[in-house]
Amino acid sequence: MPDAAFISRQGLIRNLHQSLQNGKSALMVGGPLIGKSTLARQLLQKFKDDPASLSPVFIPLEQMQSSADFWGILMKGILRDLLDPNGQNPYRKGPDSLAKLMTQLHYFSEKKPERFLRKKLVLLIDDCDRFLPDAAACIAQIENMRMELMAPSIEAICWIGGLSWLDWVDTHEKDFGGPLRRYPLSTVPIRETRSIIQTQLGPEKVAPVWEETGGHPFLLEKYFGGIPNYTLDQWNQRIWSDLRPAEKAVLNRLDPKGKWHILDDLKMEDGTKPSKTLLDRLCMAGVIVRTLEQGIAVLRITSPLIREEGPDG
């Protein structure tokens, strides 16, 4: 499927790019396989395509085993995106601490000042859940580096992660250098999804493909050339494991086949309606909330990945 097919997400990329370009750090979060890493790479390319933009450094953390690994991954990203696509570090060993990173950056700023001294960076840190559970010390050092590093300077950071990362940020936002603008990802809106299916697969495919995918980008890939290696049961269990008990309780009251449910009819254990935060998190997992013309709020499950709680849930 062409990346530009998701019009709503291209708008998000433009908005996020502008916010980071203005020096405002951001948080992009969503459930498993919702498209976070794909959007991070698209954001990287948007910065690269605009010569007036900040210099982007993409930092994927999927191989990070400990916080000490972060500094070597960051150094590799800086070398790759600023100096050499191969990211070769002449130091025999990459940095495993902030102090060693600063020492190596100082070396490069002296050797290649034209490539370092005038650079203003934006860091795109993907898979931030890897910082957990003991993220506080590392985040504090990263924010200190952002404040102190002058050659090159770090203007903004985009923190990209899942629901566990969002939980941590919610209780530690003061640990960041300033407010984070939030960009939650959910399934692709129904009208947009159906338009894509009709245009690319034909009108006869709209109903069955929507029923099987619910607008989930990962599931849609099956119909557009991608061959994802997954079973629904595997990803169903992973998503349910990320949900809080209150969120599971709401999901278990919704129709697994996707019928609409009136929000006011849903009550939590204390008799209150589900909070906006809870609903936002459910939308990131595959629920859609809509307000009807009469002002009545309704919701339903769209993603097959959360239609039934896994056997280990």
Summarize the structure.
With 313 residues, the chain is of the alpha/beta class.
Number of domains: 3
Unreliable residue stretches: none
Terminal CA distance reads: 33 Å
Task: Give the name of the CATH superfamily of the largest domain.
Answer: P-loop containing nucleotide triphosphate hydrolases
Report the mean per-residue pLDDT as an integer. 83
The Cα radius of gyration reads 21 Å
Helix percent reads 40-55%
* Tally of helical runs: 13
**Pairing-aware structural class of the strands and helices?**
alpha/beta
Proportion in β-strands:
5-15%
If you consult CATH, what is the topology of the largest domain? Rossmann fold
The CATH C-level class name of the largest domain = Alpha Beta
Give, in order, the helices and strands. HEHEHHHEHEHEHHHHHEHEE
Q: Examine the secondary-structure arrangement and name the CATH architecture of the largest domain.
A: 3-Layer(aba) Sandwich
Feature tags:
313 residues, alpha/beta, Rossmann fold, Arc Repressor Mutant, subunit A, 3 domains, 5-stranded parallel β-sheet, 3-stranded antiparallel β-sheet, 8 strands, 45% helix
Structure description:
There is one protein chain. The strands form two sheets. Strands 2-3-4-1-5 form a five-stranded parallel sheet, with helices on both faces. A three-stranded antiparallel sheet has the order 6-8-7. The protein has 13 helices and eight strands. The longest helix has 16 residues, at about 65-80. It folds into three domains: about 5-185, P-loop containing nucleotide triphosphate hydrolases (Rossmann fold, 3-Layer(aba) Sandwich); about 185-230, no CATH class; about 235-313, Arc Repressor Mutant, subunit A (Orthogonal Bundle). The protein is an alpha/beta fold.
